[in-house]
Amino acid sequence: xxxxxxxxxxxxxxxxxxxxxxxxxxxxxxxxxxxxxxxxxxxxxxxxxxxxxxxxxxxxxxxxxxxxxxxxxxxxxxxxxxxxxxxxxxxxxxxxxxxxxxxxxxxxxxxxxxxxxxxxxxxxxxxxxxxxxxxxxxxxxxxxxxxxxxxxxxxxxxxxxxx
Amino acid sequence: xxxxxxxxxxxxxxxxxxxxxxxxxxxxxxxxxxxxxxxxxxxxxxxxxxxxxxxxxxxxxxxxxxxxxxxxxxxxxxxxxxxxxxxxxxxxxxxxxxxxxxxxxxxxxxxxxxxxxxxxxxxxxxxxxxxxxxxxxxxxxxxxxxxxxxxxxxxxxxxxxxxxxxxxxxxxxxxxxxxxxxxxxxxxxxxxxxxxxxxxxxxxxxxxxxxxxxxxxxxxxxxxxxxxxxxxxxxxxxxxxxxxxxxxxxxxxxxxxxxxxxxxxxxxxxxxxxxxxxxxxxxxxxxxxxxxxxxxxxxxxxxxxxxxxxxxxxxxxxxxxxxxxxxxxxxxxxxxxxxxxxxx
Lengths: 163, 344
Known about the structure:
The structure holds 2 protein chains of 2 kinds.
Chain A (H helix, E strand, L loop, with lengths): L1 H18 L6 E8 L2 E10 L10 E7 L10 E4 L30 H13 L9 H8 L3 H15 L9
Antiparallel strand pairs in A: 1-2, 2-3, 3-4
Chain B lengths: L11 H5 L4 H14 L5 H4 L5 H11 L4 H6 L2 H8 L10 H18 L3 E6 L1 H6 L5 H13 E7 L3 H12 L4 H20 L4 H16 L7 H8 L2 H21 L1 H4 L9 H9 L8 H11 L3 E5 L10 E5 L10 E6 L2 E7 L9
Parallel strand pairs in B: 3-5
Antiparallel strand pairs in B: 1-2, 2-6, 3-4, 5-6
Helix pairs in contact in B: 2-4, 2-6, 10-13, 11-12, 11-14, 12-14, 14-16, 14-17
C-alpha cells in the first residue's frame, strides 16, 4: 500500500515541478522534507481582486497512506479570517476534503480549489461564525476590512518557513 | 454544501424490483435497529421504497441478512427505536458510517471462494418463505455463487476471460476494452496523473490473466488491497467518464437538481458507495460487457428472482455475467452450463 502512495506522490511531485508556471496563485507546493513524500506544504497567494491581496498563506498537508482513495488532511498554518476556516486551528471546511472527496483529485487541483474558496466563501457552513455572519447580512465593507486587517496582521510577514 | 444527498438519489431500476410497501418498511426498521439511534433521522428519508434500499446499501449493513429476511423480531426492535433529537454533524455521521463499513470490511474478504448455491439457501433458513422459494427456483439454473464486496463485476469478468482459454478473442476484447477506457477517461477530462496508476494496475491484471491457472490464483491477486482498490477505482472512473461524456442521455434521470458532475463525484467516483443502476449501465456500455443482475427481494407477487439485463450497444460476444444484488453489494452467480445461452 505504502509503495503505491509513494509512487503516486513522486508522480505528483514531478508534475508539479513541470507545471509551476501555470498556477499563479500557488507560490509553493512541495514536500516539507525531501525524504518524506507524505508531508507537504503549500503557500497560497491572496488574489489581487480580493481582501486577501498581498497575503501569503501557508498550508500544512498530510497524506494518508491510503491516498488517493482517502483525501489529504489540509489546514492553514497561517492564521486567516475566512468563514470556512477555523480561526485557531486552521481547519478547512471544504466538501471535497471530506464528504465529496474523489480520487480523481490531485494535490495541485485541491490547492487550486482551496485558493478559489478564498474568493468564494460558503457562509452557510461556517467554521468562523463571525466572518460568516458579516457575509450573511451583506456587510461587505465590514467583512472586507476584517479580512484585510487579519491579512496584514498575520499573512504579510516575510518570515522563513517554520520547520 | 453538505447534504446527505447520496442517500436521496434513487435510480429507477431497482425500484421496479424493490420490495412491496410492507417489506420495505421492515427492511427500514431492521436498519434502524442496527444503527445507533441518532443516525436515523438525518439519513432515512422516506421518499420511495427504493430509497430504503439505497440507504441500506450505502451503509453496507452488517445486519443485511436480517434486513432481507425481515424476521419479525427485528421489525419489533426497529419500531421501538426513538426518533432522534440530536443532530450530528456530517463528519460525525461519516465517521460512524465508516466505522460500520470497516467492521464489515474486516469480517469478509473482498472476493471470497466460490461456494455451492446451497450456502445461499442456508443464509435464509430462518427467513421468509418467499426468499427460500425464490432461491430454490434460482438453483434450478444456477449452481454456484461467490460472495464479494466491491469488485464482483471485475472478478466475474476477468475470471470468465481466464477460464475461456479456448476463446482467445474474449481476452483480446477485454484488453482492448481496458485500453480504450484510457481515451474515455481523457475525453471526460480526468487528469492522466490522477487515474494512471489505477489504469495500469487494471491493464496489467487483464493482460496477464491467462497466466493464472485457476480461479483461486486470480482470487489471490484480487485479495491484495492495492490491486483490488485500483481495479475498483478504475472501473468507477470509467463509469463516471462514460456518464459525463453521455450527459444528454443520462442527465435527465438525475434527481434533486443534481448536475452530472455532482452525481458522479458523490456516487460514482467515491469509493464504497453503492453501485446504482446507472453505474451498471455505464460500465456495460463503456466496456462492452453484458450483465444480468438478479434482484433478490421480498416481493411476494413473484416466485422467481427478478433478473434485469444490462446490454452493451454492440452485439454481446459472450453470455452475460450474472450478479446477485442484495442491498449493499453484489455477489457473483454461476449459471449452469446448459442454461448459459438462454434467458432465465
